[in-house]
User: What shape does this take?
Amino acid sequence: EFLCRYIWYKMSRLLAQTNIVFSTHEQVLIDFTDVFSATYPAYEILCENINGTNDNSYINANLINSSGSVLSDSNYTWKEAQIRDSGTTQTSSIGQAAAMWSIGRPSGASNGKYAGIIKLQLISPFESNSFTQFISRTTHWSGTSGRHGMWAGNYKNAVSCTGIRFSTPANTSSAWYNFNGGRISIYGIGGS
Assistant: This one.
């Protein structure tokens, strides 16, 4: 395990990081611009201690192209599979021809006591001749029930992207889904 961590450390570089502060009554948009380049073929995005004011809501992501425009067309596809610790029915969701990826869920239980973690790997976002793909592993809570998820998807248009936007859903049925805290870090992986 030590050797694996050492190799990952030597092959990765922290490119950007932000702390999430409490937000009320508004959709949260967090943009990372100019972080993807030809230097790295892949990226790891770590979302730590992600808290939400509502349990079990989605965290979404959109790519940002090299012109700085957020891509919100219908080229996003994703799939989620969720394992619950309570032994209840497992769940899955799917997004086809969606306007964004859903990549995980925050936790809002017990004032953030049960915070969520998302570890997302993004493949070839800067390449203009291939689709961008992602896979993420998540741990979050709904109340005091643990949930572990696997997410995967792609952006079905070959376009060069230099950034990514994370967001919470907009106002739905008068309930705002906000980030309540946490940190997002982006690492370049496998560069020379």
Notes: Confidence is low (pLDDT under 50) at residues 1-8.
